[in-house]
Specification:
Layout: H1 2-10, E1 34-42, H2 46-53, H3 59-62, E2 66-69, E3 82-89, E4 92-103, E5 107-113, E6 119-129, E7 132-142, H4 144-147, H5 151-174
């Protein structure tokens, strides 16, 4: 673990993609002590991009920190829906319990809790842009794990995951026609 933390701390951070123009961060982002944002242009209509982003079975196609689901994600997605995601943070597996806190035609808000009291908030916002759509990914982190000496490393890891995810998003949306069959959730049993 120490080697991973030191390697991550010394690694050159990934370039965070951005869209030219103004973006007002969501109000709920202020609830978190640390915030990270990234954006990208996607050459597709906003409604198609939003449909792709709210199809949680497509997370493996673009969200780099996603490793799987403990059970099938909700379909269709609605406010109040809950799910448990298996994720990767600092190359360590983590379970994150998510709930859909908000959903409009252009924004999906997820609130989650992770190990050791980690609190997360994700906002995916899609707006019309000259080339198709502008996608904004705002994330907030809070809780005890972020307050200590590891906080900066966790924030840097999330920033890199957002950047890498958004770099993959345009290609994923472009090839996202047919749905892939959902993988079976990983169930751990005592041996």
């Amino acid at each position: 673990i120490v080697r991973t933390v030191v390697t991550d701390a010394l690694r050159r951070p990934a370039e965070v993609p951005t869209v030219a123009g103004e973006h007002t961060p969501p109000a709920g982002l202020a609830d978190f002590s640390r915030q990270v944002s990234a954006s990208v242009e996607v050459p597709a209509a906003p409604d198609a991009v939003m449909a792709f982003l709210t199809d949680f079975t497509r997370f493996p196609d673009w969200l780099t920190m996603h490793a799987g689901w403990r059970a099938a994600p909700p379909e269709p997605v609605g406010v109040g829906a809950t799910m448990t995601q298996q994720g990767k943070l600092l190359v360590m597996p983590v379970d994150i319990g998510w709930s859909v806190a908000g959903l409009t035609g252009s924004v999906v808000e997820l609130r989650g809790t992770g190990p050791m009291g980690l609190e997360l908030g994700f906002w995916l916002t899609v707006e019309a842009a000259p080339g198709g759509s502008a996608v904004y990914f705002d994330a907030g982190l809070g809780g005890q794990p972020i307050q200590g000496p590891m906080g900066s490393t966790v924030v840097r890891a999330l920033r890199e995951a957002l950047a890498e995810s958004l770099q993959r998003l345009p290609a994923a949306v472009a090839t996202g026609g047919a749905k892939r069959p959902a993988r079976q959730p990983v169930l751990h049993r005592a041996s």
